[in-house]
Write a structure and sequence with these properties.
InterPro entries: Tscrpt_reg_PadR_N, WH-like_DNA-bd_sf, WH_DNA-bd_sf
Protein name: PadR family transcriptional regulator
Number of strands: 3
Helix content: 55-70%
Pfam families: PadR
Largest sheet: 3 strands, antiparallel
Radius of gyration: 25 Å
Structural class: mainly alpha
Order of helices and strands: HEHHEEHHHH
Strand content: 5-15%
Low-confidence stretches: 1-9
């Protein structure tokens, strides 16, 4: 395993990045339920990495428990009728997460952008439909920017969330840029449409002159 300073004593298991994300969320609190983790992921992680389902979260928690990086216990409600499982990071889990952050290779971001793919195939698209897709994406980017800004503002009141708050401000700038890129592409497509129209007009005029 790994000692408390993050020094490798034995090789740590190769876990998917999503497992490290869940373990990282556990490092922010003494205990969290699966519902808490889902809520925290939707509050922060979804803006830049992952919007998980409950089944994904519980699968990763099970994996983390198997490796001794997390523990769980059942907490029964006051009426004794309901119980929920609470999860906590272990010392070896915190050391493993620290080792992953500091020493594991950093994966290059992979951009899989369906709007850009459709624009790339714009010669097959109906012009008005392409404009509609881009305008919808502009609205989406603005909505995400506002949500990220609100969450960043909320995180600032808690000093324990200084790093997530800083990342959320990065997300705000990302969605501002995403909106601008889509608006620029929309303007470029309008220019292309005007050029095509002029070429068609010139071609029609030349055809008439030849007769």
């Amino acid at each position: 395993m790994i000692d408390a300073h993050g020094d490798e004593q034995e090789s740590i298991p190769e876990l998917p990045t999503t497992a490290w994300a869940v373990l990282g969320m556990l490092s922010h609190a003494e205990e969290l339920s699966g519902y808490d983790l889902k809520k925290w992921a939707d509050w922060s992680l979804q803006f830049f990495y992952w919007s998980p389902s409950f089944s994904q979260i519980y699968a990763e928690l099970k994996r983390l428990e198997k490796h001794g990086f997390a523990t769980s216990r059942t907490v029964v409600s006051e009426d004794g009728m309901r119980g929920k499982r609470m999860y906590a990071i272990t010392e070896s889990g915190r050391a493993a997460a620290s080792h992953w952050v500091n020493h594991s290779p950093v994966e290059a971001p992979v951009l899989k952008h369906s709007v850009m793919l459709r624009a790339w195939l714009g010669h097959l698209a109906q012009p008005e439909r392409m404009r509609e897709i881009l305008n919808q994406h502009i609205d989406y980017a603005e909505t995400m920017r506002r949500r990220a800004q609100a969450d960043a503002d909320g995180a600032e009141v808690n000093p324990d969330w200084a790093y997530p708050s800083a990342v959320l401000r990065w997300c705000v700038r990302h969605y501002e840029a995403e909106k601008q890129f889509a608006e620029d592409l929309l303007a470029d497509l309008d220019k292309l449409a005007r050029k095509r129209s002029r070429r068609k007009g010139a071609g029609k005029q030349n055809s008439q002159d030849s007769h």
